[in-house]
Design a protein that fits this description.
Length: about 350
């Protein structure tokens, strides 16, 4: 019951936070929510199907570039067609690359996904499709116009905040339902023992490909929102560093739960902001990668199950601490008591024989 209430409480807290009045903290919350969607999309692969990908940033960047490239410079595009276009473009690329990458396993799958991601990166970096290495601007956020009527205006900062929050809630709800479905159960079986699933009659390849495409589509949603947030898209969104960053979020939070992906996102983004703060670290803030790396290593070493597994880890330690004294007492009570005569013989002090007594 508590696991169901915590996500609802977190969403309500984020909704209230929009009235904080600070543009900086509101923008930071939007960034965390967008990366939370990105981390949830990868959690489906890593925690759901056991597929560790280092090319997930390609779909994030494709969603962002489609939003920027298809938006006119003079007016706002229609949200009703721009968002599906971004999702379909990433899904198509995932279907084409996943059909080949999923023929491999283990480290080979990691390297193939990285190669496909770098291919997409250099397409935008070395050509004029998206402005080359300089990137491209998005001048107007899209509008949802229904016969001239606008239900909401994404140009308004608070409206955009709630739009991103709604996307995060829908992504969470969709993945939660997916985990409880027969499809999610099949993915869990594939993660635990793919050979046994095949022996049981399951064709694992279509399940993994479907999960790969779904994860890519959700990642493109995060990229689409990121483009709308900043109004600027660069090829660095497709770089392997972005893939490594989102993978760190999933590992840091815990790969076994949806909440872990979001917790890892919150922790990593806040640590980045902390170590980059010149008000706290002064000139040393230029070297923020060093303390960030040390903090990540410490957290991963101390929390092998991630931040989401911290309560269970504390309960196990407390239970072990309570059980240790009782176990010692039970062992002492169960020990056999020595015989009285034997004990007296053992406790009798040794003496030298008197003259005339035989030596024993």
């Amino acid at each position: 019951m508590l696991n169901r209430l915590l996500p609802i409480a977190a969403l309500l807290a984020l909704a209230v936070f929009s009235w904080s009045g600070s543009d900086y903290y509101t923008g930071l919350a939007i960034k965390i929510m967008i990366y939370g969607i990105f981390a949830l999309s990868l959690q489906l692969l890593v925690g759901g199907a056991g597929l560790v990908s280092l090319g997930h940033a390609a779909f994030f960047g494709i969603g962002a570039y489609v939003a920027a490239l298809l938006s006119p410079e003079s007016e706002a595009a229609g949200l009703w067609w721009l968002l599906p276009a971004a999702l379909l473009a990433a899904a198509a690329y995932a279907l084409a690359t996943g059909a080949l990458a999923l023929r491999t396993r283990g480290v080979y799958f990691i390297m193939v996904t990285l190669a496909f991601s770098q291919m997409a990166y250099y397409v935008f970096h070395d050509t004029k499709i998206g402005g080359g290495s300089d990137g491209i601007y998005l001048y107007f956020r899209p509008e949802l116009s229904l016969g001239g009527w606008l239900p909401f205006d994404l140009g308004d900062a608070r409206t955009f905040y709630f739009f991103v929050l709604a996307c995060l809630a829908l992504t969470w709800g969709f993945l939660a339902l997916l985990r409880r479905s027969p499809f999610g159960a099949a993915l869990a079986g594939i993660r635990i023992n793919e050979q046994r699933m095949r022996a049981a009659g399951y064709s694992t390849y279509p399940y993994k490909l479907a999960a790969y495409v779904i994860g890519a589509t959700l990642a493109s949603l995060a990229g689409f929102l990121f483009a709308l947030k900043d109004g600027f898209v660069t090829p660095e969104l497709l770089a392997w560093e972005q893939s490594g960053l989102v993978l760190l979020m999933v590992i840091l939070g815990g790969m076994g739960s949806l909440g872990g992906a979001v917790l890892g996102t919150v922790a990593l983004v806040l640590m980045q902001e902390l170590f980059q703060s010149q008000e706290i670290f002064g000139e040393y803030a230029r070297h923020w990668h060093l303390p960030l790396g040390v903090a990540i290593i410490a957290l991963v070493a101390l929390l092998p199950n991630g931040l989401a597994g911290l309560p269970a880890q504390l309960r196990q330690r407390r239970a072990a601490h309570v059980a240790a004294p009782s176990l010692d007492a039970d062992t002492a009570r169960a020990a056999p008591k020595p015989d009285a005569a034997h004990s007296s013989r053992q406790q009798a002090p040794a003496r030298l024989p008197i003259q005339g007594e035989p030596h024993v």
